[in-house]
Amino acid sequence: xxxxxxxxxxxxxxxxxxxxxxxxxxxxxxxxxxxxxxxxxxxxxxxxxxxxxxxxxxxxxxxxxxxxxxxxxxxxxxxxxxxxxxxxxxxxxxxxxxxxxxxxxxxxxxxxxxxxxxxxxxxxxxxxxxxxxxxxxxxxxxxxxxxxxxxxxxxxxxxxxxxxxxxxxxxxxxxxxxxxxxxxxxxxxxxxxxxxxxxxxxxxxxxxxxxxxxxxxxxxxxxxxxxxxxxxxxxxxxxxxxxxxxxxxxxxxxxxxxxxxxxxxxxxxxxxxxxxxxxxxxxxxxxxxxxxxxxxxxxxxxxxxxxxxxxxxxxxxxxxxxxxxxxxxxxxxxxxxxxxxxxxxxxxxxxxxxxxxxxxxxxxxxxxxxxxxxxxxxxxxxxxxxxxxxxxxxxxxxxxxxxxxxxxxxxxxxxxxxxxxxxxxxxxxxxxxxxxxxxxxxxxxxxxxxxxxxxxxxxxxxxxxxxxxxxxxxxxxxxxxxxxxxxxxxxxxxxxxxxxxxxxxxxxxxxxxxxxxxxxxxxxx
Length: 525
Fold this sequence. Notes:
Mean pLDDT: 89
Shape: globular
CATH class of the largest domain: Alpha Beta
Number of strands: 22
Number of domains: 2
C-alpha cells in the first residue's frame, strides 16, 4: 500500500530544524529476541512468588520509571512475522508470506513504497536509524544480470550474486537513513553485516566466503559442553542453523559491542540537533548463545547458570549503553523509550536455565513458537519521564505492532485508513488519559505449528491451521482471567456448555480475516 501521510502540525514544524529537536520527542524502540516476561527481574519481583535467579537492573530501571503492560503480546510467536507486523503495523496474515521464518534471499513481504515505521518517522522530519537484526528478507542482484538471487541461504558454495550490496528491500527502502543491519541477527545465515546497504567487513582482511563449522572463528567462550547440548557436530560452530555466505572474520561474541556502539554513535550525532527515531533490534538472547567474555568492564562468561542467561545479561548492558547515551546528551527526558520482544522466551535447548529455577515464560504456559501465553505474552515497557507515570502498570490489551500508530500520534502524523490496519494508538494510555478507545478483540498467530489465536475479552480461542490455509479447526478455549496458565484440564473446547461460544468466536475470526477488516480502533485524542 502506498503511504498517504498528512502532517497535523504543519510543514513548518517539519522544517523547523534545531528548534523542533527541543520540543518533538525522540523515539527509541528496542526489540529484544526470544525474551519472555520471566526473563526480566522486574516481572519476577512483582508477579512471581520467588526471587529472581538473575537481575536485569537496566531494563528494570525503565519499568520502575515508566509503565509495564501486564497484557502485552508479540505480534506472533515467532521472529520474522513479528518483525513484519511491527514494521508495517499490519497483522502478518496480510503479507504474501503468512508463516514461518524467511530465507535470507526471500524477496520480502514489505515492498518499496509501503508505509513502515521508518517512512512515517522519516516523512515526519525525524532522523531515522535501524540497527541490529533485520530478518525481513533481502534482494541481491545475480552476477549474470538475470534478476535477483532466490536460492538456498544454507548453500555451502558461494552464491552467484553480488553480496557486497543490498539491491533493494533493505532498511533504506523502509525509511531508515542510517542502518547497520545483520540479515538474520546472530543465528544466520547470512553471517555478515551491512552498513547503509553495503557489506561492512569485520576486519580489513575479511573475505566473503561460505562460513561453516570448519571456516568460522570459534569464540573462546564456547565450550564442548555447549556444542553437545546443541547437538552440533565438529569442534567449531557459529550457529545451529547451518552454513551460508558470510564474513571470514565473523565472531558472534562481538555483535553486542558492535551494534550497541553504533546505536550510541547514532544518538550522539543527532541528539539536540534533530528529533530522531532509533529502531534497535538486539539479537539477544537468540541461540547460539555466545556472549562476550566481558562488556564495559562487566564480566559475562561464567557469571550465570547458563550461556542463555548470560546473553540476557548482555541485552541488559546494551540497554544501559543506550540509556547512558541519552542521559549524556541530556535527551532522556525528551525521549519515548519502548522495550519489548519479538516472541516469548526460550525454555528448550537452553541447558542450565530451567534447572537454575529461572523461568523465561514466567507464570505462563508455553514458550517461543507456541500458541499459549508463554509464546507471545512479552515484556512491554514504555518510558518517558514527565509524561508516563513512574512505576505504573496498565492492563490494556496491547500488541507489538501498536508501536506504529503510537509513534505516528507522538510525531503528529495522521495515518489514513489504508495505512497500518491493525495498529492501535496507545498514547492516551501512556499519558494516563481517562478517555481511551479500548481494543475489543485481538487476532494473532503462533509459530512453527501454524496455530492462530482469537481473543475476545477474557476468552481466548486457539485454532489449528496449516501452511496452505486450507484447514481451520478450533482446538482450545480458555478463560484467561480465570485460567491464565491455560491449564489443559480447564480447556473448554469440548464442554457442551461452551459449544455456541466456540462456534461464534470461530465464525467471527474467519469473518475478520477473510473480510480484511481493520482490527485496531481508530483512536482520537
